[in-house]
């Protein structure tokens, strides 16, 4: 089944989360406007610094603070490249934490789409007060439907001796 736009972007957020480096939580975020991906992020350490996987988590008040959250990294990536995210939709694997929700709102995000919750977040309160909708959708399929065998015009790479025979 061909995925809807919402499913497609949530799935991209899931794929971004595969790059996460904190074993306590893997999150991904994709910022989208007019069906274009503006920026992506996952929760990971600051550029050049050690990852939780190597250095262990840095726990403060029962939260790991070594990583920047996915939403923050998506906002930071847009900032580095001079891309306005005003009016964009944020597709996030999880309910944003309070701090990330506030940062998304301050950056002009106009809709947030998630499929999983996060304990203790005040995101819903701030979103509601700001008039920004939060859509909880079912988790997209974890399957990637791409099989070279079923596409007749695709050829698998079979190594250095491979030649195209069509
Ligand atoms: Zn960690
Ligand atoms: Zn956060």
Number of strands: 9
Task: Report mean pLDDT, rounded to a whole number.
Answer: 93
Structural class: alpha/beta
Rg over C-alpha atoms, rounded to the nearest angstrom: 18 Å
List segments where confidence is low: pLDDT < 50 over at least 5 consecutive residues.
none
Small molecules in complex: zinc ion
What composes the largest sheet?
5 strands, mixed
Outline type: globular
Instruction: Write out the strand line-up for the largest beta sheet, numbering strands in chain order.
Output: 2-1-7-8-9
Sequence of secondary-structure elements: HEEEHEEEHEHEHE
Please report the distance between the alpha carbons of the first and last residues. Answer: 30 Å
β-strand amount: 15-25%
Number of helices: 5
Helix content: 25-40%
